[in-house]
Amino acid sequence: MLSLPVLLISMLLFLVLFFGIGFLLNMLLRMSWIMAIVYPIVCIFIIDNVRFIEYFQSPNKSFPALGEKILSLALADILILSSGLIGAILSGVIIKMLRKRGYQMF
Prior knowledge:
Layout: H1 4-29, H2 34-47, H3 54-57, H4 59-71, H5 75-100
Helix pairs in contact: 1-2, 1-5, 2-5
Pfam families: YuiB (PF14068)
InterPro entries: YuiB
């Protein structure tokens, strides 16, 4: 059970972390929504304990295990992971705004 300050700090950290990663990836790869696309895969790695190769070797076991893990997430986990997704999407929006305003670096 997370306390409220820990939950808020975790949400802020995930938002800032994935905003920063998304901003850097957008700037380097010049693809605005790359982190928003990659973020669900990152979440799967965070949530599930199954190795990535097992999704291809034994999908009959690994995908139902992933579904059970997702359904068993607590509200705090969902809030923390959602704030990371918001950070990833926000980085794409900010990059788009900077490009429209003529910042060539972005």
